[in-house]
Specification:
The protein has about 290 residues and is of the alpha/beta class. It has 11 helices and 8 strands. The two termini are about 35 Å apart. The structure holds 3-methyl-2-oxobutanoic acid.
Length: about 290
């Protein structure tokens, strides 16, 4: 159990034992959202970390294409292949199964694996679902709406991703906050509504102003928003595992908190993250307001 400390993330009761938690399913995520319970998500890329995150009470595990940076040493997610995503999704799914875990598993569709056609997206999504994912995530709005609808109609739950979309970092001119102008905010809102209408069951909002993501969270209603660098007003939060454990090899994004700095174990750091999100204590820093 985590030891008491003076930090706002440090004095924490233990997370509920996995046995007392309900398996996470789409209806359960919708129920949590309707009841105003914050949804927690962390990335994981292997069996052990995924099982530890589940034991810490994290509801959603994302096998993110951020694995390109944190596992493969790439400078962006653009070089990540579908085969790499399949391999890591399978590793995580196996770890969760062995641990009799309850977490909801999301597989990230990598760059180039869904851009060509809806049919290509379906083939790529099937690879990740057959590797053990319960849901796939894809980046972007506008042209992706039709693809989301196509996948959802075929029984594949989809998480959309707007704001800073790392696969298009070169087109965006870097890892910058998105939706800052009135026009950009209106476009982002319109895309989010279209994605919800197309059947997206979750929406990651990355690096958007806190006021915009909070407004969108209220407006959307039934599609929970999961923020990363998007303020505290989203329906849930996600962080890259290595970032929240203070193991970032490059520049640590401003919105990240190193939960390991007050914890005595990886599971303790994850429990601290879960508690901080559930209680609306993370994110708190003014930098999250952009
Ligand atoms: O790949 C990833 O880890 C992600 C999260 C940052 C949301 O997409």
């Amino acid at each position: 159990m985590t030891q008491p400390s003076a930090s706002p993330y440090g004095t924490l009761p233990a997370a509920p034992a996995p046995a007392s938690r309900k398996p996470i399913s789409l209806p359960r995520l919708r129920e949590m959202h309707a009841q105003g319970e914050k949804i927690t998500m962390l990335t994981a890329y292997d069996a052990t970390f995924a099982a530890v995150a589940d034991a810490a009470g994290v509801e959603c595990i994302l096998v993110g294409d951020s694995l390109g940076m944190v596992c493969q040493g790439l400078s962006s997610t653009v070089g990540v292949t579908l085969e790499a995503m399949r391999h890591h999704t399978e590793c995580v799914a196996r770890g969760l199964r062995r641990a009799q875990a309850t977490a909801w598993l999301i597989g990230d569709l990598p760059f180039g694996s869904y851009h060509e056609s809806k049919e290509q997206a379906l083939r790529s999504a099937a690879v990740l679902m057959q590797a053990g994912a319960h849901m796939v995530k894809l980046e972007g709005g506008g042209w992706t709406t039709e693809t989301v609808h196509f996948l959802v109609e075929r029984g594949i739950p989809v998480c959309a991703h707007l704001g800073l979309t790392p696969q298009t970092v070169h087109a965006l001119g870097g890892y910058r906050v998105q939706g800052k102008t009135g026009e950009a905010a209106a476009t982002l809102k319109a895309q989010a509504h279209a994605l919800q209408d197309a059947g997206a069951a979750m929406l990651v909002l990355e690096m958007v102003p806190a006021a915009l993501s909070a407004a969108l969270t209220t407006e959307l209603g039934h599609c929970p928003t999961i923020g990363i660098g998007a303020g505290v007003g989203t329906a849930g939060q996600v962080l890259v595992l290595h970032d929240m454990l203070g193991m970032n090899l490059g520049r640590m994004p401003k919105f990240v908190h190193n939960f390991m700095s007050e914890a005595h174990s990886v599971q303790g750091a994850m429990q601290a993250y879960v508690r901080a999100v559930k209680e609306g204590r993370f994110p708190v820093d003014a930098t999250h307001a952009w």
